[in-house]
Amino acid sequence: MVNHPPKSDWEKLFTRPLIDYSSLEETVRNVLEKVKEEGDMALFELTKKFDNVSLENLSVTGKEIAEAVSTLDPKLKKAIQTARLNIEKFHKAQLQVPGPMETTPGVKCWQKSIPIEKVGLYIPGGSAPLFSTVLMLGIPAVLAGCKEITLCTPPDTEGKINPAILFTANLIGIEKIFKVGGSQAIAAMAYGTETIPKIFKIFGPGNQFVSMAKELVSRQGTAIDMVAGPSEVAIMADETSNPEFIAADLLSQAEHGPDSQVLLFTTSENIVKQSIKEVKAQLDQLPRKEIATQALASARFIVATDDDNMVEMVNKYAPEHLIICTENYLQLSERITAAGSVFLGPHTPESAGDYASGTNHTLPTNGYARTQGGLNMDNFVKKVTFQEISEYGIFNIGSAIEIMAEAEKLNAHKTAVSKRLKRLLDNFGNDVQHK
Amino acid sequence: MVNHPPKSDWEKLFTRPLIDYSSLEETVRNVLEKVKEEGDMALFELTKKFDNVSLENLSVTGKEIAEAVSTLDPKLKKAIQTARLNIEKFHKAQLQVPGPMETTPGVKCWQKSIPIEKVGLYIPGGSAPLFSTVLMLGIPAVLAGCKEITLCTPPDTEGKINPAILFTANLIGIEKIFKVGGSQAIAAMAYGTETIPKIFKIFGPGNQFVSMAKELVSRQGTAIDMVAGPSEVAIMADETSNPEFIAADLLSQAEHGPDSQVLLFTTSENIVKQSIKEVKAQLDQLPRKEIATQALASARFIVATDDDNMVEMVNKYAPEHLIICTENYLQLSERITAAGSVFLGPHTPESAGDYASGTNHTLPTNGYARTQGGLNMDNFVKKVTFQEISEYGIFNIGSAIEIMAEAEKLNAHKTAVSKRLKRLLDNFGNDVQHK
Questions:
Q1: Given CB 3.0 to 4.6 Å as the disulfide criterion, which of A91, A125, A390, B310 pairs with B304?
Q2: Using an 8 Å Cβ cutoff, are A118 and A199 in contact?
Q3: How far is CA A401 from CA A135, A386, B131, B324, in A?
Q4: Backbone CA torsion sign across B144, B150, B154, B157
């Protein structure tokens, strides 16, 4: 427990563990080069090496999908469907852009959301099937209207993909699913192979090799969603908060990985004590107890002098997830300036947003919440500006452009307007009408 | 002139010149390190070295601003004011986000646009004062509500900043203006010095040193707007288009720099011939004739078989600026899937968008238009998600979360919900009401 830390300590108190993948750079570069040069052959070879399986095919077949759909537990199917509808509803509303406007009579300007044509989604493998991430990446891609959606995920040692992943991808309409993982999957999507189409932007989480691969291909021109670090939660609590819920929420972050960041900010010393007690009690019942224990070793329990002090510290830290379960949670939420996603009140655990409330769970870590939000529809489209100027319009703003272009010594910029104005004057004199 | 290029030639035909700044990396790294370690002292020293002037102060004083405001040509002031109002109007409308919604009864979710607290704007020096870029970066920053806006621009050899830049910055309300340019300015904003505040995100164009510095600090956690390459225009024309206007528009791009990309796509061979003739005629009258001539040496005049073919080629190239001055320009514009900003009809020169129509002139080059749009309000805010779930809400979606969390083997995620559901059942049985 840290009591009333002075500002001079904040920098250190809120420093994340340094993530330096640079030692992996050469290994990952070699994988990228190999895939670029050898295409599918490299993917078969690397999958044998890293995933311990000799594949017949990189593509998931229709039969495999049908099997997954028919075998998956109906209860899980229904839960995924519930989540899907909420996520769809929340993301669909984000597609709106303001309509056309006249900035000056005759000068019509507008924005249009144009989908990114080709996107690639990466779903990590590992001990658990991250089908929720299929929802979070796939639904906005489909809603945006991306024409070509490619999904890559590593096969298990029998060459299979978890049925929950296949069911979810199929449910939302993703057809191109490939059995390839790690940095080789990122390379395949960035460069294209005989089987896997080259895409324009890659989305999705992954281990340090995947992160390094994403960073390297992004320097070569393939767009990426964001650079992801260890997951984080900060909770703001007061003496009215429920320590049992606080403990459950802290643990649900801690179980992600040994480097997960767990912070409790509160104005009540008593709540810290009770929450720690509850954490200990609940920890024993967790299958992932060991991981959570490691993460909790660097957890921070911080007592603030008052609400102002608490808000300032949280904004300084800029957490990925922020749970506010104080009595005045709505008031405090108004003052948050840096957080990825905010969970309000006693009945809003972070896991609601991880799975089913509708908001996206792909969020900025490592302080990036200072400058960016979580994944949303904006990440799957380009907002392209259009403008259409009438004769009357160029007559109205032409001289401003001429004067500014001349002052910036760009005379051809000026001429492009002058030629048009001259023709108008030749044709109409000063009698240009607004149509 | 290239007639009906087959698809197999497109890749090569639309390849941009390779921009490889890696040879600058060490030089720029040294500048960054120096500024990080020595702060203001490094800035004074580097400004003497690179800008040939010994400064007394890094900050622009109120007196300098007052002088600029009083001496600038009133006509230019008025033109800047016209542009400002249009840019403000167009960008202000982009601030809207969808209101709160219930994705499921009792599950309330919403997005909120929160300004990035501290932003830095870089305005390059050189032969001309780029006050238009002050408008394009500064207006959205102010509209977004960014609390701390810092502007850096290199001084001339007398230690002065061009009055048009100072007037414009002052007009839109930017107070912190510093006389520092190049990679040292990027370093100062990324790390902070005694005088220059550390910011979270850097915006603005610049030469190759500035670009390299932005890339390097972005790898260290400072956000940047985009990676900018040489400027580009593509024009789509048919036999009804005006060759005089086409030539003027091509030249207004060519005068930017010797590496500017200039392309004409048309279904009419005759228009190519007439446009080339017009380019030659207008070129002679340009002060920046030499630069434009160099750029034109690699200009491409491409004859398409028909509209479909023309649209496909343009989307493949993904130009920064696209002028469509065919008779059916509105129809063609509907089919554009990759461009930074689109200019429609005979009276809409690119220079309108560069200065005064209202759209932003900071746009994606080098094919980035496939995945991103130009600068807009989204770049100055974070869209943060909020959710507030009532008792009734968690009762409605709780079991879906529990089932999904269990299937992903994240049991603490499940527990965070179960604990809440249990308390509700203990208190109310199944009689949880929607409030």
A1: B310
A2: yes
A3: 48, 18, 13, 20
A4: positive
Look at residue A320 and tell me whether its pLDDT is greater than 60: yes
pLDDT band at residue B227 under the 50/70/90 scheme: confident
C-alpha distance from A359 to closest chain B C-alpha (Å):
7
Q: Which of A121, A94, A266 is nearest to A197 (CA)?
A: A121
Query: So what's the pLDDT on residue B259?
Result: 92
Q: In angstroms, rounded to a whole number, what is the distance separating the alpha carbons of residues B337 and A114?
A: 6
Q: Alpha-carbon distance B257 to A162, whole Å?
A: 54
| Model pLDDT, residue A428 | 81
- Whether residue A170 contacts residue A136, with contact meaning beta carbons closer than 8 Å, is answered with no
CA-nearest of A115, A193, A189, A102 to A153 is A189
Q: Which of A99-108, A130-139, B220-229 is predicted with the least confidence, judged by mean pLDDT?
A: B220-229
Site of tokens 């009689």: B431
pTM of the model: 0.95
H-helix or E-strand spanning residue A185: helix A182-191
List the single residue in B93, B337, B408 with the smallest CB-CB distance to A129: B408
> Domains in chain A and their CATH numbers?
21-226+378-382 (3.40.50.1980), 230-373 (3.40.50.1980), 390-434 (no CATH)
ipTM exceeding 0.85? yes
Respond yes or no: is residue A91 known to be catalytic. Answer: no
Q: Which residues contact A429 (CB under 8 A, 6 or more apart)?
A: none
- Decide if pLDDT at B194 tops 60: yes
Beta carbons of A28 and A218 less than 8 angstroms apart: no
Length of chain A: 435
Contact check, Cβ <8 Å, B98/A98 = no
Q: Which of A73, A351, A399 sits opposite B413 (nearest CB)?
A: A351
| Inter-chain touch A357–B245, beta carbons under 8 Å | no
Chain B, nearest residue to A342 by Cα: B386
Written as six digits, the tokens of B418 are 């179960």
Alpha carbon of A52: minimum distance to chain B alpha carbons (Å) = 22
Do residue B400 and residue A336 have CB atoms under 8 angstroms apart? no
Beta bridge partners of B118: B148
Question: Contacts of residue A107 in chain B, CB cutoff 8 Å?
Answer: 86, 352, 357-358
The residue type found at A118 is K
Q: Measure in Å the smallest separation between the Cα of B348 and chain A Cα atoms.
A: 5
Instruction: Judge: A373–B383 Cβ closer than 8 Å, yes or no.
Output: yes
A295 CB neighbour count, 10 Å cutoff:
24
Task: Give residue B96's pLDDT band: very low, low, confident or very high (50, 70, 90).
Answer: confident
